[in-house]
Amino acid sequence: MAAKLNINNLEQQQTALEIESKEFDYSKRAQWLRAAVLGANDGLVSTASLMMGVGAVKQDIKAMILTGFAGLVAGACSMAIGEFVSVYSQLDIEVAQMKREKQRTNLGSDQRVERETAAGRKDEEKLPNPLQAAAASALAFSIGAIVPLLAASFITNYKVRLAVVVAAVTLALAVFGWLGAILGKASPIRSASRVLVGGWLAMAITFGLTKLIGSSGLSS
């Protein structure tokens, strides 16, 4: 009877550990996805704002597309380099901490050594990957930046092009805001509204200031 109880307890503990592991994995995955959504939102807003700023003083479609493309490349590179440096610093800190823990460990029996070796391998597998983080950041930024570029690429009429860019960016902002809210377990309406207002303000301020400077004669 006692043996059966012990077996049941072990099975319950194992099930609980599996559930905790799945929840932890989901939490980590959600953090990565939320970071990707934020990166895409940055690419969307910054590239669209640049294109709207150029569109305020130049009606040429080539100027707007080249500006958006330059913003995409520059932003993706900046995001990748920044993320690489940040994650590499985190990696150095975690590796140094692991070395200190190994030095402080007083190894006993062979069985204990084997357990610590296996645990050490698992810890090494969980270490952050700077290259992977850099690539993910650059990709996320590029996905967001491509939205206004595609929206403006095939429309020659100046006013229609600006309207289509704003409409496409508005739709993408709403989607990114909703995804961010779902992953962050927040209110989708409030989150999407904040993202929308922020994106509209960024484009409006850039458009207005560039228009003001352009009308003063500096654009020539």
Description of the molecule:
Belongs to the CCC1 family. It is elongated and about 70 Å long. The protein has helices at 2-55, 61-104, 110-125, 130-153, 158-184, 188-215. The chain is mainly alpha-helical. It starts with a helix and ends in a 5-residue tail after the last helix. Helix 1 packs antiparallel against helix 5, helix 2 packs antiparallel against helix 4 (130-153) and helix 4 packs antiparallel against helix 5 (158-184).
Itemize the secondary structure elements and their pairings:
Blueprint: H1 2-55, H2 61-104, H3 110-125, H4 130-153, H5 158-184, H6 188-215
Radius of gyration: 25 Å
Helix segment count?
6
Largest sheet: none
Residue share in helix: over 70%
List keywords for this structure.
220 residues, mainly alpha, 6 helices, elongated
Question: What's the short version?
Answer:
With 220 residues, this protein is mainly alpha-helical. 88% of the residues lie in helices and 0% in strands.
